[in-house]
Amino acid sequence: MVRLVLADDEPLLRRGLKVLLETDDRIEVVAEASDGAALLDVVARVHPDVVLVDVQMPVVDGLEALRRLRDLPDPPVVAVLTTFDLDDYVATALDLGAQGFLLKDAEPDALIRAVLDLAAGGAVLDPRITARLLPRLRGSGLRENHQVAGLTGRERQVLALLADGQPNAAIALNLGLTEATVKSYVSALLTKLGVDNRVQAALVAQRANGVSW
């Protein structure tokens, strides 16, 4: 069971997401929050596995809440709920350690799958956000090419699956490895790429071009 907290200042949206996500019996919405301050209190109380947080909220906004959640001793996995007109916030959320970016109008099945993947250790990027974000971050792609080229063949395989949003268990199954071995590869490639988390690694992979995988 994935224990989930929803943070958004729109009650109807929270209620709709709760009903939608709980159609899957592997997901339980254990608490809701209408602002960032309430979210911090709720997380400290219920210790969820995954948090979905809006960016624009009163009292404490989503980005500040994300910053504070990152500093907890055992932080939950956090994904940002956003809309197309809030692209400017995505890069900041990425730097603050968000493990996923989801659009509020995503298909129900995609949202459910995203929550399950996040809980399993995956990184989740709505393709529409990626398509809009990459041109602003791409540059020439030369730096990313150099970074990816410096990985071993197996690390590139792991990175390609990671960039596709696969959690460690799925990567292990795909490559015939143990989860512990995959975790070691992920840790190594994060260090080599100079990034802090899986989402940042996925963006490096997607910005790279001209590299043989």
Outline the structure in words.
The protein is α/β, with parallel strands linked by helices. The chain has two domains: 2-134, Rossmann fold, CATH 3.40.50; 139-207, Winged helix-like DNA-binding domain superfamily/Winged helix DNA-binding domain (Arc Repressor Mutant, subunit A, Orthogonal Bundle). 54% of the residues lie in helices and 14% in strands. The protein contains eleven helices and six strands. Strands 2-1-3-4-5-6 form a six-stranded parallel sheet, with helices on both faces. Helix 9 (168-175) crosses helix 10 (179-193). The radius of gyration is 17 Å and the shape is globular. The mean pLDDT is 87. This is Response regulator transcription factor. The modification 4-aspartylphosphate is found at residue 54. GO terms for molecular function: DNA binding.
Quick structural overview:
Residues 3-119 form the Response regulatory domain. Residues 144-209 form the HTH luxR-type domain. This protein is 54% helix and 14% strand.
Give the tags.
213 residues; alpha/beta; Rossmann fold; Arc Repressor Mutant, subunit A; 2 domains; 6-stranded parallel sheet; 11 helices; Sig_transdc_resp-reg_C-effctor; phosphoprotein; transcription; transcription regulation
